[in-house]
Amino acid sequence: MKGKRNSCNVTQVTCLTVCLLAVVPLCSAGVDSSAQQLLTAAARQVNIFTADAAPFQLDADFIAQIQVPTEGHLILRWDSKDRSWRRIINGDFEQIDIKKGEVVYLKRNAPFTPIRVREVIGLLPVLGKLEGMQIKKARSRTERGVQATCVKVSLDNGRGERFHEICIEPNSHDVLSDEWDEPPDQPRREEFSDYAEFRGHRYPHKIILLVNGSKVVEVHVSTLETRGPIDDALLAAPPGAIVRRVCDGMKRPVPVKTPDPLYPKSSSQNQLMGDTTVAMTVLPDGSADNIQLIGSGTHAMDDATLQTLKSWKFKPAMCGSESVTVDIEVVVSFRLR
Length: 337
Description:
Helix content is 12%, strand content 51%. It is built from 4 helices and 21 strands. It has helices spanning 33-46, 115-123, 265-269, 299-309; strands at 6-14, 56-65, 69-80, 83-90, 93-100, 103-108, 134-143, 146-156, 161-168, 175-182, 186-198, 201-211, 214-226, 242-245, 254-257, 274-282, 288-295, 313-315, 317-319, 322-324, 326-336. The strands form 4 sheets. A 13-stranded antiparallel sheet has the order 7-8-9-10-11-12-13-2-3-4-5-6-14, covered by helices on one side. It has a 4-stranded antiparallel sheet with strand order 1-21-16-17, with helices on one face. Strands 15-18 form a two-stranded antiparallel ribbon. It is globular, with a radius of gyration of 20 Å.
């Protein structure tokens, strides 16, 4: 938005609701081979979602800071990247998502998945969001009382470049933390501890997410054990489920017409700033649908955002030559300057 006193920054984020669990390919920037080897070894060690892994079940209890701390539970049955079943409960919210081949079935008792629930899901594949990262530099430092090697990497996943610092205990190869800044001004940090052996891997049984220095999610893994393959009946589409297609090499929707919401005069005059977060669906024709408010700034900011996003247009997401429906988040940040 033009003007000297205020600005509106829009960040598009692919929604985590239908994201299952990914393997992390690491890219070498050719700057530090020892750091590259350490990061590669740590990523392989912590990645229990490998192509040759036998089926397993993971159970976790968690506390998510929504308006008040809210207890939750997650059960994940995993056969492969193409066969999984997950149930997550947080307070009154409940969701089941099923991955079967290139199809995801999603059943929930609310119009949208709460932000903290999506963050819980995103915490489980440790380093899983860092696909395509490139190493910049490494340094030694003490991390929560442990001498660690901290590797700075850059990542550009279509939402602009991010710089992460990943701290690893060099002898055990345990990932201790991952921290980065989420634009415009939101420091985020993930902490991993209580590691245990599992089928040749080491996986953390305690995971914490901090945003702006405050703990917003704490996950405790209670069960991680080998199980038999998932019964096909469990992978059947639940009645009324949302259906989405996902595929290898899937292309994200590309914004082609995304005007910024106007900074509300009432908010500007009262020196108010905030972030409005919206979940929305991008249809195969590139139009926006099912726009839901999931994180509030002020009433005026929320209203300006919801009204403007109705007119957004995209080049749709693509699976090969086929345009497909996807769910995304949009974060609109209102800042005075």
